[in-house]
User: What shape does this take?
Amino acid sequence: TIGSYLDLSGTSFTNSNYTVARTKVGTYWNLDTAGTNSTFFYINSSAAYTTYLNTITRSAMYLYNCTITGVGGNSIAMGTSFAASLLHVDRCTLAATNMHIIYMSAHLLTGSVHRFTNNTFNNKYGAASADAAPAQGMIAYGPGNVYIQAGALVQISGNTFSAVHAATFTVYITSNGGQIIHEDTNSCPTIGGFYINTVAIAPPHTIHIKGYTKLTALSILHTTTMNMTGESIAISNSVIGSCTLQFGASMGLSALVNGSVCTTSLYLTSGTFALNGVITIIRVTTAAFSLTAPRVEQTVVEVTNSTIMDTSYNVVATNTNVTISKVVVANTFTITGSHKQSNFIFSNNSMPSKTANSLTLTSFTMIDSYIAFVFNLITTTQVNAINWVSSPATGTTILMDNNTVGGQAAFDMTSANILGNSTLWLKRNLFYATAAAQVTLRVRLQGGKLRHDETNRHQVGILAVYHTGNTAGDIFLVEQSSFASYIYSQTTTLYSNGDYVRINRCIVPSVAVTMGLALGSTFIVNGSTIATSASLAMTSAKDSTMGYQFSTLTAPTL
Assistant: This one.
C-alpha cells in the first residue's frame, strides 16, 4: 500500500483459530509499505483476542474507541519491527487475562512514535486461583531486552490502570537514546511496579507520576555517566513501597517528590555531575531516605515538611544551596561529603531519636561555606545527640542558634574540626546530658574561632573546649548553668590571642583552664559555686586578666 488507508470501523472479531506463538489472534497486521503516508484505522471495533502488530513500517495506525481483550494473550502485541511509523491508541478499553496488555518484543526504531492516551487498562491476571506468581504488566517493552532507540518516542497520558495481581506493573521501558513522556494525568491505582531505565544519551524525559495508591516499587534508572539535559522527574500524591531515582550526568535536572509515602525507602543518586538543577523533597513519609551526589554545582536542594526514619546525605557540593527544614527524623541523620562555597541550612527539624548519634557529621568537609543549624530539636535516649567526627571546616562560619540538643551525651566533637579562618558560633542553645560523666558540649579547635555567649544553657554533663592550634579572640561565656565539670584547654606552646572566658552564676563541681602563651586574654569566674576545685594555668601571660569571685565556696582547692 502506498498512500492508501484501510478503515475497519465498527467491526467485531469474536472468534479465532489463528495463533501466533501459542496466542490466539483476533487481528493480525503485517504492514511494510514501499512508500509513505499509508494509514490504517481500527475504530469503534472489538476483538476477543489479541491484536497482533507484526511488522509496521512507514505507516500510521490508529486504534480509537476499541475494546480488545487478550484471552490467553496480550491485548496488543507488537512483533518483529516498528520503524518510522506511528501507533496511536486512544480511548480504548484494553484487557488481558494472563499476559501484558501492551507488549513489545522488538526495538522501537528511529522515527517511530507510540502514543497511549485516554485508555482504560485492566489486567485480570490473578483472578483465577490457579494463577501463579510471574509478574505481568500494563505496558511492557521487553521487559529489559527491548529498547526505545534514538529518535523514537513513547508517550503515556490520560490513562487509567487497574490490576488484580500484586506483581502487576504499570510500565517497563528501557531507553537507548529514545524519549519517554509519562504524564501525571494517568490514574494509577495499581499494586505493581513502575520501571524506566536509560542506557544511552536520550532527549529529556518527562516522567511525571501522580496518584499511584498501591505501587510496590518505582525505579527510574539512568546510567550515571550518561549526559542528561533538561530532565524532568516528578512523583506526587502517591503511595510507593520502594522508590529509586538514579540520574545521569545532568544539566538543568528537575527532580520533585511531593506529597507521597515511600513505605520502605526513597533513594536519589545523581550521576557524575549535576549542574544548574533543582532537587525537591516535600511532604514525604519514608522509612529510609538517601541522597547521594558525587558532584553538585549551582544547584538547589530542598528537603522539607517530611517524616523519615533514617536519613543519609552524601553530597559533594559547590556553589549550591541546601535547605533541610521541618523534617521529623525518628532514628538517625548522617551527613557526609563536602560543601565548598555553598550554603547548608538545617532548620526547624525534630529528631527525637532512641538510638545513638541522632545527627552525625562524618567526613563532611566544609570550605568557604555557611552552615546553619537553627531551631532544631536533636535528642536521643542514648549517647551523642550530635556526633561530629572528622568533618573539618576551613574559611567557614557554622552557626548553631536556638537548638535543643540532649541525650546521655549531647554534642561531642570527637576530633579537631574547626580549622583556621573558621568560626563556630553558638547562641541561645540548650545542651543537656542525662549522664554526668558524658558531655553537654565538647568542641575541638585547630586554629579556628569559637563564639559561645551567655545565652546558651548547659545542664549536667561535662563542658569542654580543646585547642590544638593558635586561637584568635575566642569568646566563651557560660551563665546560670549547672554541669559536672568545666574544661578549657589549649596546647601550652600555642598562642591565646584575645581569648575571653567567663563563668558567671553557675554551679560547677570543678573548673580546669589551661592557656598557652596568653596575649590580652581574660579568664573570670564570677558569682559561681565551685564545689571541689578550680585551676588556671598559663604558660605565660601578657596584658591578660585573671579573676575569681566566689559567692559560695565549699571546701574548694584553688
